[in-house]
């Protein structure tokens, strides 16, 4: 996101705001925080609502955590 914002700033927009449906709590975070956040979630692998795991679960109308059994079953 920092690289994208840097690229956009070259065009000198009046304002840039970032919105994110999900923000993970993770120690690897670079410190970037969006201006608007829907939900802060733990550092788990989530699927659904256009988020997939190996092309599966993208069409779910909700977001959920995929467990290790699910990852094993649908791995490539």
UniProtKB/TrEMBL annotation:
SUPFAM superfamilies: PRTase-like. It comes from the Eukaryota. Coiled coil: none annotated. This is Phosphoribosyltransferase domain-containing protein 1-like.
């Amino acid at each position: 996101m920092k690289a994208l914002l840097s690229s956009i700033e070259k065009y000198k927009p009046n304002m840039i705001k970032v919105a994110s449906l999900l923000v993970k709590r993770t120690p690897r975070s670079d410190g970037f925080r969006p201006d608007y956040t829907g939900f802060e979630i733990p550092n788990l692998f989530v699927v659904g609502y256009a988020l997939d795991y190996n092309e599966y679960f993208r069409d779910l109308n909700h977001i959920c955590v995929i467990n290790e059994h699910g990852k094993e079953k649908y791995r490539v």
